[in-house]
């Protein structure tokens, strides 16, 4: 268990809900690419990607849309609407 009582990656999933951090982790693994390659594809640096994954920070809207597109996810599943 990590800081603030959280668990890492997919182990904190409850019911059918998944966090954005978990979706990102599962997504690049499913695609068979590295974090570096995923960051390149969505146009951010790996440091930013690591913050989203580690601390659960939601990316800025431009990156959020790219993450959703790259992973084929619905923004509504994460409480957001894509504009």
Can you walk me through this structure?
This protein is an all-alpha fold and 83 residues long. The chain is 49% helix and 0% strand. It contains 4 helices and no strands. Helix 1 packs across helix 3 and helix 2 crosses helix 3. The N terminus is likely disordered.
Task: Summarize the entry for a quick read.
The chain is mainly alpha-helical. 49% of the residues lie in helices and 0% in strands.
Which properties best describe this structure?
single chain; mainly alpha; 434 Repressor (Amino-terminal Domain); globular
Largest sheet: none
The helix fraction, in percent, is 40-55%
> For the record, what CATH class of the domain at 17-72 applies?
Mainly Alpha
Helix-strand string: HHHH
C-alpha termini separation: 36 Å
Percentage beta strand:
under 5%
> Roughly what is the average pLDDT, rounded to an integer?
80
How would you sum up the global shape?
globular
User: How many strands appear in the DSSP assignment?
Assistant: 0
What name goes with the CATH superfamily of the domain at 17-72? lambda repressor-like DNA-binding domains
Question: From the coordinates shown, what is the CATH architecture of the domain at 17-72?
Answer: Orthogonal Bundle
Count of alpha/pi helices: 4
CATH fold node name of the domain at 17-72: 434 Repressor (Amino-terminal Domain)
- Rg computed from alpha carbons, rounded to a whole number of angstroms: 12 Å
- Structure class: mainly alpha
Low-pLDDT ranges: 1-15
């Amino acid at each position: 268990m990590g800081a603030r009582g959280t668990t890492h990656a997919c182990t904190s999933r409850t019911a059918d809900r998944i966090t954005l951090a978990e979706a990102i982790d599962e997504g690049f693994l499913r695609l068979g690419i590295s974090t570096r390659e995923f960051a390149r594809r969505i146009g951010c640096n790996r440091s930013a990607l690591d913050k989203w994954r580690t601390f659960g920070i939601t990316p800025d809207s431009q990156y959020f849309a790219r993450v959703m597109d790259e992973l084929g996810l619905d923004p509504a599943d994460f409480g957001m609407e894509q504009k």
